[in-house]
Amino acid sequence: MGFIILAAWVLAAIIALAFVIVLIKFFGLWFRALVSGAKVGLGRLVGMWIRRVNATVIVDSRIVLVKGGMPIHTDMLETHYLTGGDVVKVSRALVAAAKAKIDLPFERAAAIDLAGRDVLDAVKTSVNPKVIDCPSPDSGKYTIDAVAKDGIQLKVKARVTVRVNINQLIGGASEETIIARVGEGIVTSIGSSDTYKNVLENPDNISKRVLEKGLDAGTAFEILSIDIADVDVGSNVGAKLQADQAEADLRRFQAEAEQRRAAAQAREQEMVAQVQENRAKVVLAEAEIPQAIAQSFREGNLGIMDYYRLRNLQADTDMRASLGKQMAPPEGGT
Questions:
Q1: Could you tell me if residue 31 is inside a domain?
Q2: Cα–Cα distance between 45 and 51 in angstroms, integer?
Q3: How confident is the model at residue 229 (pLDDT cuts 50, 70, 90)?
Q4: How many domains does the chain have?
Q5: What is the pLDDT of residue 19?
Q6: How far apart, in whole angstroms, are the C-alpha atoms of residue 233 and residue 195?
């Protein structure tokens, strides 16, 4: 009987000690929530500790929400915390949206935060529009280069004023898409101009044409305005292209002439070889003449007098050829 009583006292002491520890650990949070009108029970605080949830973050966020007129239950805050969300940033974003009269339920804010976007910055941008430089300085380029129809290059800097579209923040394209689309629109607008002077005289035409294209479709932003900050005249790209084309044509013509010259030289060599071949045939034919004469002698078709007359005729022909060469004028003379 005495052992049972002792065990009861020990158990009571343990319970009392645990209660004291709980009071010491969570009383401050519980009391702060109580006096702030965002009551959180001690049992729930103990459950947060067991679930390894930062009770301070949950209580402080609930106080902010309650004071902002949005009494979100702690279960929703805990769930967002356990899924890796930023409870503090979501709470501040909800209060800011409520003050700005922006429809932003907790579920959407939590989804935006879990998607990796800064929900608080999105709300701030919805209230205070953001200016985006086009092109972005982070890309290493400082101007958008485009060429008008007359071949003159223009270097343009633009600034795009955007406002976040909360409803399209999940799944909507980012700032990079806005910058790319605006750059494409500027290049198209300048490229369709007959002369660069028209662009310099009316740079606002670029903004009007670009805005008419609805570049913010499918993005997380709403484009409010596109302002041309600077327009500079670059190089004469058209003249450079024409010079490059002329040089390329010159090289092509030179290559074709060289090809024709090589073909002519090859043809000349072929003709020289053909002449040598014909001369060889003549020599072979002349070599057969004595054999034919000898055959004629044997067969009785040629007499000795006929042979002498043939020799005299050949000698006379050789003499005439020699005299003709001696009487011919020298090369380059008259």
A1: yes
A2: 10
A3: confident
A4: 2
A5: 61
A6: 12
Mean pLDDT of 223-239: 83
Query: In the numeric block, which tokens belong to residue 226?
Result: 């596109």
Q: Say if 197 falls within a structural domain.
A: yes
CATH number at 167 reads 3.30.479.30
42 and 108 belong to one structural domain: yes
Give 56's contacts (C-beta < 8 A, 6+ positions apart): 29
63-to-24, 68, 69, 160, 200 alpha-carbon distances in Å: 21, 8, 10, 38, 57
- The last residue of a domain, from among 236, 265, 292: 236
pLDDT (mean) for 100-113: 87
Shared domain check, 27 and 52: yes
- Tell me, yes or no, whether 137 and 102 share the same domain: no
Secondary structure, 3-state, the chain? CHHHHHHHHHHHHHHHHHHHHHHHHHHHHHHHHHHCCCCCCHHHHHHHHHCCCCHHHHHHHHHHHHHCCCCCCHHHHHHHHHCCCCHHHHHHHHHHHHHCCCCCCHHHHHHHHHCCCCHHHHHHHHHCCEEEEECCHHHCCCCEEEECCCCEEEEEEEEEEEEECHHHCCCCECHHHHHHHHHHHHHHHHHCCCCHHHHHHCCHHHHHHHHCCCCCCCECEEEEEEEEEEEEEEEEHHHHHHHHHHHHHHHHHHHHHHHHHHHHHHHHHHHHHHHHHHHHHHHHHHHHHHHHHHHHHHHCCCCHHHHHHHHHHHHHHHHHHHHHHHHCCCCCCC
Residue 261 has pLDDT above 60, yes or no: yes
Whether residues 228 and 143 fall in one domain: yes
Domain encompassing residue 148:
130-236
- Give domain status of residue 73, yes or no: yes
Structure tokens that stand for 245 in this block: 């084309």
> pTM (2 decimals)?
0.57
98: its two tokens: 């409520």
